[in-house]
Specification:
By secondary structure, the chain is α+β, with helices and mostly antiparallel strands. A five-stranded antiparallel sheet has the order 3-2-10-9-8, sandwiched between helices. The radius of gyration is 25 Å and the shape is elongated. About 4% of the residues have low confidence.
C-alpha cells in the first residue's frame, strides 16, 4: 500500500492542486464579476446600484424556475433583432442580432429630438414651412402657423408627427441638410457603428439605418433629458399655435401607455421596409429595463413576453449574495 502511495503520490498531489486551483479561480471570477458589475452604473436616475441581475440558472435555482410558465420560447420571436438591458447596471440581459443593420423607422425621431434640444430653446418659435408633401403621420400643421419648439417636440414624439420633425429640421440655420448632419455628428459622438441618418422623420432610405444596440445607446441618452422623458411617457396631450387659436390633439402611437403602468416610454416606428419597431423602457419591481425590438411582426405581444421573461429568468442580488448563492 505504501509503495502504491509512493508511486502515485505526485499524481494525487497534482490532482489536489488542480482542484484547489479550480476552486480559487471560480471564487476569484465570481468576486471579480460581482465587483465589476457593482461598479457599473447608468446614471439616468442617479441612484446607487446595490444589486446585480443574475440568471437564476447560474445559481442552481432551477427548482424555483420549474414553477414558472414555460410557454414562451424566446427563440420563437419574429423580431429580426432584439436587445435587452438592465439600465441601472448597464448589463445586457439578452440580444438577438443586436448589431444587425436595419431600418429604424420613426425611432429616428429620438435622435431628431436630441439635436433639437441641443440647438434650440423650448420656447423658440418657428414658422411652419411648406411641408404638405410630407408623407406618413401628420398632425395637420399648415404653412405659416407659428409653433414653439416644445410643442413640436411633443407632436414628433407622442403622435410621431413627420411634419413636426421636418419643421424642427427645416428651421435650423443650416437648413435640413445641416440638421441631419448634426444627427450624424451625434452618431459619431456616441461611437455608433451601425447608424446613419438621411432624414429626421425615419422614412425608409438606402442609407437610413441603425441597430437595436445603437438604438439602446441613443435611448439612454434621450432619457437623461427630463423634458423628453416626460413627453414620451404621455398617452395624450393638446398643443396649440402661438395665437392659441389652432389646437392639435395628440394621441400616443405607443399602445403600452395607459395600459401597462410599468412602461415609461419611449418610441414606436413603422414603415413598409422596417416593419414594426419598438423601443420600450419599463420600471417593474424598481428595475429599469430597456427593450428594443426591430423588424417585428407583433412588437407589443413580443415585448410583453420579453418583460415577463426578464423577471422569470433573472434575479437581482448583491455581490455578496451572488458569492453566497454560488
Amino acid at each position: 500500500m505504501k509503495n502504491l502511495f509512493k508511486e502515485n503520490k505526485y499524481k494525487l498531489v497534482s490532482v489536489f492542486i488542480l482542484v484547489i486551483a479550480i476552486f480559487l479561480y471560480k471564487s476569484v471570477s465570481l468576486i471579480t464579476f460581482a465587483k465589476n458589475s457593482a461598479e457599473k452604473k447608468y446614471d439616468v436616475y442617479t441612484r446607487e446600484v446595490l444589486e446585480i441581475p443574475v440568471l437564476r440558472s447560474n445559481l442552481n435555482l432551477q427548482e424555483e424556475d420549474d414553477t414558472k410558465s414555460t410557454s414562451f420560447d424566446i427563440n420563437s420571436l419574429t423580431s429580426k433583432s432584439v436587445y435587452i438591458e438592465d439600465i441601472d447596471t448597464a448589463t445586457q440581459l439578452f440580444e438577438k442580432n443586436g448589431e444587425r443593420v436595419l431600418l429604424p423607422a420613426s425611432t429616428t425621431k429620438i435622435m431628431t429630438a436630441l439635436v433639437a434640444r441641443q440647438e434650440y430653446k423650448l420656447d423658440d418659435v418657428f414658422t411652419i414651412p411648406d411641408i404638405f408633401q410630407i408623407d406618413g403621420y401628420s398632425i395637420g400643421l399648415f404653412k405659416g402657423e407659428k409653433m414653439r419648439v416644445d410643442q413640436l417636440l411633443k407632436a414628433a414624439l407622442i403622435q410621431s408627427s413627420n411634419d413636426a420633425a421636418y419643421t424642427l429640421a427645416l428651421n435650423h440655420p443650416n437648413g435640413l441638410d445641416g440638421f441631419v448632419k448634426l444627427m450624424n455628428q451625434k452618431v459619431a459622438d456616441f461611437n455608433l457603428k451601425s447608424t446613419y441618418f438621411e432624414n429626421p422623420a425615419g422614412f425608409d432610405n438606402d442609407s437610413q439605418r441603425s441597430s437595436a444596440h445603437d438604438l439602446a445607446i441613443i435611448s439612454k441618452e434621450f432619457m437623461k433629458d427630463d423634458f423628453l422623458r416626460e413627453v414620451v411617457g404621455a398617452k395624450e396631450d393638446i398643443i396649440s399655435d402661438e395665437s392659441g387659436v389652432y389646437k392639435h390633439y395628440l394621441y400616443s402611437t405607443n399602445e403600452f401607455l395607459g395600459v401597462d403602468e410599468s412602461v415609461v416610454g419611449i418610441k414606436t416606428g413603422t414603415t413598409e421596409g422596417a416593419h414594426q419597431v419598438l423601443i420600450t423602457q419599463f420600471n417593474r419591481e424598481d428595475r429599469n429595463i430597456l427593450i428594443i425590438v426591430m423588424g417585428s411582426d407583433d412588437r407589443y405581444e413580443e415585448t410583453s413576453q420579453l418583460i415577463d421573461w426578464v423577471f422569470d429568468e433573472f434575479i437581482w442580488l448583491t455581490p455578496e449574495q451572488i458569492i453566497e448563492e454560488s
